[in-house]
């Protein structure tokens, strides 16, 4: 027997947190009866679960790493018919991105149909660092870097401490390449952090997620995560 929200998340249709909301809202039925209590347990092999009137079908969990190109939406669909990240991965499974990279940002993005896994990696208490390489305007001073390292005030609050390193600066072009690692996932956070110190981002790429790296992939390419990588990411989230 497993908790109902976990079974829903493992089906791939949504995260565990969203599954809990659906249960409380009365949108989940078990064996024809509406269930609204989060403590409910079910046997996924026997009990018939419906979410929003659609029977649950348990899928085999899959885990992908995509090198997202710029100009692509981190979603499974787009009302303006722009290219989305799932267009790059041919699969019958109902996968979706874990977190997001904005339209103008490239780099490492994970996709899965395992809502439990997705929730584990994105939950704020699980401080998994993501590393970005940013090309910024100007040449940040040491005092600017220290502000990012200690945390900087944005309109939605102070950021957590970041790991920051200036890789190189070009005095002639007045640009710099900066490596920054954060464990938060606010909207356009890295771009807003650099704007806050007066060095807007010109180009941004996520190079690393936890221990996972883009090595061997070109923009638009993907690969499945190996079982030991999935296990290690789980362990990283709970430590």
TrEMBL record:
It comes from the Bacteria. Residues 2-64 form the RNA-binding S4 domain. Keywords: Isomerase, RNA-binding. Coiled coil: none annotated. Its EC number is 5.4.99.-. It holds the Pfam family S4. Belongs to the pseudouridine synthase RsuA family. This is Pseudouridine synthase.
